[in-house]
Amino acid sequence: MRTQVGIIGAGPAGLLLSHLLHLRGISSVVLEKRSRDYVERRVRAGVLEQGTVDTLVAAGVGGRLLREGLSHHGIELRYGGAGHRIPFEKLVPGRAITVYGQQEVVKDLIAARLEAGGDVRFEVEDVAVHSPGDRPYLTFGGERLDCDVIAGCDGFHGVSRPSVPPGVLRTYERDYPFAWLGILARVAPSSEELIYARTERGFALHSMRTPEISRFYLQVPPDAGEAEWPDERIWAELKARLETVPGFTLTTGEIIEKGVTPMRGFVTEPMQYGRLYLAGDAAHIVPPTGAKGLNLAVADVRVLTEALAAFFRDGSTELLDGYSGACLKRVWRAQHFSWWMTTLLHTFDSDDDYGRKLQLSYLDYVTSSDAAATTLAENYVGLPLEG
Ligand code: FAS
Ligand code: PHB
Question: What is the pLDDT of residue 298?
Answer without folding.
Answer: 98
